[in-house]
Amino acid sequence: MDVLEAVLAKLEEGSYKSAVDIITDPANDIAVKMQSMELISFISKNLTDENAEKKPDLYSATETVLSRVAQQCSPPEVLYELMEKVRITTSDDVFTSVLKCMQVAILRLPAKRARCMEWVFQTLIEYLDKIKLPEVINKDMDEQEEELLECEESIRRLLQLYITLLLFLEPIIKHLNQPSSNIFFETSLTQKNAVICFLLRLVGKLFPFLHLQRTEQLRKSLKQTPKLPASKSYSIQVAEDMIGTLLLLVKDPLFMLPYGEKRIHFESKKKDDDYDEESSYDCFLCQDTYMAEGFAMLFYLLLGEELLPGTVPQIYNPRYVFEMGLRYVVVLMSGDWTVMYFKGIRLMQALVKLVKDNMLSARDLDAQIHSIFCEHYVRGLERSGSVRNREVGIAVLTDYIHSFDDEGRYMIVSYMLKKFDDDSVRSYAINVYKDLIMNDMRQKLQKEPLIKWFSGDVLKNMLTHHICLLKQGAKTDLLDNSYSIISALSALWVLLKTDRSNRSHIWNYFETLEKQFLLELRTGIDLSRAHYQNEMKAAAEMKGKHSSVEQLPEITVSTLNGEMPPVMTKAKKVELCQGMLLRLDMLDFHLARVNSAIDQMRRTMGVDKCSSTQQMDTE
């Protein structure tokens, strides 16, 4: 008897129980096994949305027949045909039905066939990849927009499929999670590791885009205790379930912390001519798609959202966790989507809290990851247009700087001033350095010397080469550099007003600062003011109502916050020139304040010098 023809005929007739009986009949066992692939291929054609709606009995009977075939036949053969069905379907209902049969076959799969399981999981990932994410993830979103993201149809669909996949994996994990005689962490491709990699890839595929905050993020102060929200969102619940499932297989997730660093070394090794993949095979390194994001999101959820269970071995030095965790902050802050950045900020916030009671030293900065982190973190804040990202991100960066000793703080600020040309970044670094100097002065007695990193030759080098410097002299574009110039003037003013006893030795080289910075700035302001006054006068005297932007070439794109300037009316041009003059007036105000402080200090120093001379004459 041709089993395939008989089963198809019974299904077509509506004799569904007879179709199942043909498969389960011991007399047909050999024939069923020989025709397993054809049975799966032809019978699965009945799994359609139309049959699910109009012929539910046929659809249900087809699922039953396929499950019986999966129970009797070769698991690899069954899985091969089911993977083909997943590749061609676009229906989530059909996908779910196929998963039921796959589950039966995987549970019967021999332990040595882990590669087959990996192929199955790759096919499932490819199905999920066919679901396009919403376009809104490509823009900067505020917190409310992120929370509403899960209402998007494609996101909702993916979350539902994630729940389905967790149910699919549940008995498989229970089957694999048996006590093992091997006490070491295996990195070879086993069925258990294939499931772990699959879960990590699921985490890395979707979760970077979702709003997963389990606690309220405080903006102004990071010292207060955050509050738990009143209820969990759909996204948070799925994320918690996914991490909980992963932790069933990985009892000590912190053991996997080094994989962020390992993956970087692995990628560089693969480029070597003598690289031997077999001798150094590690399944957690060889998976490419979504794995880096998966590891980063795993530790974001464990550390940043406090999902790390209390049963995890407490054997890890906080400094070790801090340093290893920086690699995952880099991953989250380097993505193409700015919606990921806040998760990097939250993870960094959690890492800094780990070492708040153990001050790091400048020697810790010898690790290359610190410079890599600093660059990617700051670049991420530059790219992000989110007020929340910048506000919280800057506060976390400041806490990171303050987690080091004085030398370490100086080294980070110095690196930022040397590495970044962005005006706002330089302004931030200057303000941090100013605050460090002021804190040191407040903590010391009036005549007690300051530490070397905030005084003497070190301070001189910072002021003359990095802070109080116009790179092109009076020709420097003052408006493009207005924030850092104002910060430099503010730092000078505070230093002059505070350091009356010259503990920082700033007066020893003040003439250099005055010549290369203050006088050049005075000239630059006067030239720029005259230029914009002429432009405003020319715009006001224009006869036509409209004019192209080419007539005002000095109004640059950077002046307009990166936006292309529009074609402006005469009134708009006058208004723009007035805005430029107002910003120059602000620079002029800060310069005048510094010059006033200089004059006052020089008069005071002159009086003190005369008093000292008179006292000596009297004696």
Automatic annotation (TrEMBL):
Pfam families the UniProt entry points to: Kinetochor_Ybp2
GO-annotated cellular components: cytoplasm
InterPro entries: ARM-type_fold (IPR016024), Glomulin/ALF4 (IPR019516), YAP-bd/ALF4/Glomulin (IPR013877)
Highest rank taxon of the organism: Eukaryota
Any one GO molecular function term: ubiquitin-protein transferase inhibitor activity
Name by which UniProt lists this protein: Glomulin
High-level lineage: Eukaryota, Metazoa, Ecdysozoa, Arthropoda, Hexapoda
